[in-house]
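request received
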Amino acid sequence: MPSPHLLTVVLAAFLASLVEFVEALTIVLAVGVTRGWRSSLMGAAGGVVFLAVLTIVAGPALERIPLTTLQLVIGILLLLFGMRWLRKAILRAGGVIGLHDETAIYEKETAALRLADSAPIGDGALRPDRPARLDRLALITSFKAVTLEGLEVIFIVIAAGAGGMLLPAALGATLAGALVIGAGFIVHRPLSRVPENALKFAVGTMLSAFGVFWVGEGLRFPWPGEDLALLGLIGGFLLVSLVSVAAVRSSRAASANASTGAQ
Amino acid sequence: MNALVSALRELWGLLVEDATLTIGIIASLLIAAFVFPAVIASGEWRGPALFVLLALVLFENVRRTARRR
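response:
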């Protein structure tokens, strides 16, 4: 039977990568619809090739770093990354900042690309009615989206799989990628029904828990319950997040009441 | 050059969004690395103590942000 640690690694990599793939898909779809599919897909493919080369070149270098140093560095990066997500998810759930809306991002991106289309750009080869030529703006936009979101996926896979679990983490990310790309092919629209804030909540919780765990390992702190401590940390961060959302909501309600009373 | 600066800025943005949260996290890690070994005798409590410190940093950060906006 798979260990709880292994399942947590697969789940964390799957959920975190799902969010990143959805964000990349939104941009690639917006570019494809407005500027033509050929350039959009070529830009996306270029991003995938760039990431593959980066992984092949940088991957073996990671194996040369002493394990405790790697755990400490990965743990610190995970904490910065995970707690940033968690903070944003708490503020969104508490109503302090707006929810991430893939449909709105898609509309904004397509509007911007259409606007760019009406202006003369570079060599004039950017019109969708000239599909034989490559569209530089479409190529760059798709390439950038895939590269940036893909870098996050690679980081998540390395971080979640840091304790000799790279394969399960990569499996989780691959499943997420296949799911999002498959859905993108079918619907040809941004995946707006993905509960992104709930996912960010779950992922922020898991990444932060992994971060504390790896920092502890890197500093040679013995964890009570060893690997099972990870589940306790996930539960702990979840509890803190829920309490924080309640505190943020009551703080906002108190501010609203105070401003109503003052009027 | 602009593309490189833009890429580095995007990468930086992946890790740092709110400077006070980042400073709080780094301060907690420094305390864990240099103060915990001196003040917490039992090694098994150092990890949970680090979690508590980070949880407090997060809680305080979101509460302060909510009050500001």
